[in-house]
Each structure stands twice: as structure tokens, then as C-alpha cells.
Amino acid sequence: DAGVTQSPTHLIKTRGQQVTLRCSPKSGHDTVSWYQQALGQGPQFIFQYYEEEERQRGNFPDRFSGHQFPNYSSELNVNALLLGDSALYLCASSLGWVDNQPQHFGDGTRLSIL
Amino acid sequence: AQSVTQPDIHITVSEGASLELRCNYSYGATPYLFWYVQSPGQGLQLLLKYFSGDTLVQGIKGFEAEFKRSQSSFNLRKPSVHWSDAAEYFCAVVPENSGGSNYKLTFGKGTLLTVNP
Prior knowledge:
The complex is a heterodimer. By secondary structure, chain A is mainly beta. Chain A has strands at 5-7, 10-13, 19-24, 31-37, 44-50, 53-57, 64-68, 74-78, 87-94, 104-105, 109-113.
């Protein structure tokens, strides 16, 4: 039973570029959440997708956008990259609208902005 | 706004010693509470969770945590630490009644655990 998988594992971009990160949820899960973890900090919630729609959003600018596909996988897109976007981006999946179910995290994508 | 405080940035213990990692939250109602562990270069692994019921929660790898409403705390404990427990530990909260598992976690800044041989 595969867990949450994220790709790529590492990525280097320059300021102003755009990036797309990918996430496949754990088998049986239908909800995907994205978190940003800056160095030395705890993860911060970016947004959550369920039934191919953004359901919740954290305090992140519109440069951060996402998508969920019919197979429940998801993408995180970041436009006009800034140095401050350098972070570990974590994807978490869960079984939506079922009480008391934990979120399962992938190993993340390390994004470095030069 | 709800917040999570982990007062200890870095803790060092000797292998075999007991461990307690502190977590305090700021929220009016009783939130859902979690402890996650992160090894270097890896994602987060759930150690244990509290939703309701017994305030002493058992988790994986021999960890337990106790919810104390009066102190707004959810401290993580282990009676005897192993070298493999060296990692970063994150406490996280979710407002109660957030609706199923579609909640957004609010994390503390983490506590880095070093284990001396």
C-alpha cells in the first residue's frame, strides 16, 4: 500500500520563474492538503483540495495555486518565485469528511530559489 | 487566532533517560491535538493524536501524551529514549468540530531532540 508520494524530491529555480510540484495521495484517500515548511519552522497550511475544488486556504498569496485531478492527485503551482519561497513543500492526504482520521504526509519537495 | 507553543527549541538527553516535550496551545475550545516526528530530509510521521475521551494517549514507538485542559497542554513523553528517537518533534492542533478529517493543522515551531550515547 503506497503512502503519499511527492515529486520531484529536489528542485532548484531562479527568482521570477514558475514551478509545479506534484502529489499522489495514499491509496483510498481523496483529500490533499499542501504545507510549506521554511527552514527551522513548523509547516504552514497553504490550501486543501477535495472533489477537485479548493476547500480551505491559508494565508498565502495568489501566486500559490493548485489543482486536483479526478484520480485525487494534486499539483501545487507557484508563480513569480521569490527567494522567500525556498522551503520544503509537504503534501498530506486524508479521507475527506470522515471524523477522526489523521492526515498522512509525504516526504516533501525541497525547493531552492537562487 | 489559535497558536501552538513548543517552548523548547532543542533538547539533549542521554540514551535510556526519560523524555518530556512540552506543547501548549491557545484556543478557547478543546482542539484536536497531534504529535508528529520528522527525521532529517523526511516528511512527518504521526506519533499520536487526541480527539476526545481518555486524556492519556498511547502512540507508536513507545510514546505517550497527556492532554491537560486546565493547562492547555499536550506534553509528549517517553520513559526511555533510544538513539533512533533523535529527530524533530512537532505538536499540532486543529479546532474542534472542523468537519471530518478535512482540517488544517496549525503546527508549533518544533523541538529538536538530540540523543547522547
